Amino acid sequence: MKKIWVCGASGMLGSHFKRLLNKRQLSFVANDDKKIDITNLEAVLDFVRTEQITHIINCAAYTKVDKAETDLKQAYLVNACGPHHLGIAARHQNAHVIHFSTDYVFDGKENLPYTEEHACAPIGAYGISKLAGEIKLLDEFDRSCVIRTSWLFGLPGKNFVETMLRLMNEKAQIKIVCDQMGRPTYAQDLAEVALQFLDKSGIYHFANSSETNWYEFAKEIYRQGKEFQLIQRDCQIEPIMTHEYPTQAKRPAYSTLNTQKIESVLRWKPRPWQEALKDYLTIYKNFQDRQQVS
């Protein structure tokens, strides 16, 4: 019988897993009350052994891309040492690990979607720490599964969609970078796919279909946000280049993920991100309405 441990269960992706596992009536533990620190190897080993865990879904991550540039030690502890510890525990327990990584393991110099076979060359501390986590986990326990994803949004949690909705309600004009390309991913879709990989190993890419840039993504958020009456004012969205919006960390200019490998396994194609965004905003709207009533 499967017993799943959802690490990082209080975060955005972890919350989607909890809802999905409850819906499917699968046995899992989430540690909402007593969090297990995955940077503490002894704590991880003890928990996996005591709870007789068969599968580990690692949603725990250090995701502050800019802050990682000056906080590399903590980013490395969570994103590299954490997955390594989970791999050690899984090997001892003969369990299975699903770990999530990022498009930021690539340098963005390609002009075609990145496959799992492309050489990794992260250009920032965050990507470096995530790539180290992939390597450490798979070297420790090759029965592990790494799913790289990109531009993740979901509920609850801070993400690009939520930030845009807030800014579009606050400002008459916003400026959004238009020269970084990628594929948005709805956390719900990622969770549903990942549950089909509980017993698989290797590296896979997953994102919703259709390539876009942050500016076009923002425009679609505005259009749908207006339809859902989540945006109460007019807001002008202006495209700008990356060099006009300096950040601590460099971002890859092109980080579109090729998802053909995972599609061939599933015999199924991910839906367009625009459709996934509509589902997300439906849930977001209901959540907002309930908050107003309470």
UniProtKB/TrEMBL annotation:
The enzyme's E.C. designation: 1.1.1.133
Query: In which domain of life is the source organism classified?
Result: Bacteria
Where are its TM segments located?
Answer: none
Q: Where is the RmlD-like substrate binding domain?
A: 3-284
Q: Which first-to-last residue range defines the signal peptide?
A: none
InterPro entries, alphabetically? dTDP_dehydrorham_reduct, NAD(P)-bd_dom_sf, RmlD-like-bd
Tell me what reaction this enzyme catalyses: dTDP-beta-L-rhamnose + NADP(+) = dTDP-4-dehydro-beta-L-rhamnose + NADPH + H(+)
Keywords recorded for this protein, A-Z: NADP, Oxidoreductase
Q: Which GO terms describe its molecular function?
A: dTDP-4-dehydrorhamnose reductase activity
Q: Which GO terms describe its biological process?
A: dTDP-rhamnose biosynthetic process
Pathway terms, separated by semicolons: Carbohydrate biosynthesis; dTDP-L-rhamnose biosynthesis
The yes or no answer to whether the keyword Protein biosynthesis is present is no
GO cellular component terms attached to this protein's record: cytosol
Function of the protein: Catalyzes the reduction of dTDP-6-deoxy-L-lyxo-4-hexulose to yield dTDP-L-rhamnose.
Q: Per the similarity annotation, which family is this?
A: Belongs to the dTDP-4-dehydrorhamnose reductase family.
Q: Which NCBIfam families match?
A: rmlD (TIGR01214)
Indicate what this protein is called per its UniProt record. Answer: dTDP-4-dehydrorhamnose reductase
